[in-house]
Amino acid sequence: MSLPAFRFKKFSVEQEGAAQPLGTDAVLLGAWADVQGARRFLDIGTGTGVVALMIAQRLSGTPNWDGLGIEIHPPSAELARENFADSPWAERLDIWAGSIQEFAQNIADHYDLIVSNPPFFSELTTSPDKARSLSRHTASLSPGDLLACVSQLLTAEGKFCVILPEREGQRLCELAVPQGLYWTRITEVRSRPGKPVERLLLQFEKSPYDFERADISIYGGKTGEGYSGEFQEFTRDFYLGD
Q: Which fold has domain 6-235?
């Protein structure tokens, strides 16, 4: 089935051919990641490029910044390249088509913000769709590989921001410490108030001394489909009609 373009206030995201269509996880990460002080950012597994484009919009008033998306799925990498080229920040965004492991082995650059909406299917829950499986299966990017690459590429004062299901997020926190990364900010994401935590927004740094905890519900009330006030405020700079 054909996937239509998704239109934000300041850019559009074409999705046709992407391994993973645009979802709420990406929007949450793009709005939540701490861009303060960022001049160079890296988006691991950029997909359609939506998180990188949201970060770009948030940095648009900042001088001398640039962003790079890493994407292993060739059609998605080309799609992200086109979405970047059609955006107001075309000259500041670029794509590296390949795995983050290959990138870290061959590139000596460092970044003061790294973001990722990474694969999280376990071996028992692989997707039957090969492209979707490539984008969401840990066989293509294990938590250990992700953290090792981030530790290598992150500046001393940099931040790594990621979104994962609760169980996988807790596991990532455990695995991060041996890599010299410490979680300093967490937001628990629920579908509705009182519901179980479905996602964790996590920020890691190389210094373990600060910590901040918060929560957010996507929908308001126990029934209905209306977004919560906090989610609307969270995304008001991006969604049309807000």
A: Rossmann fold (3.40.50)
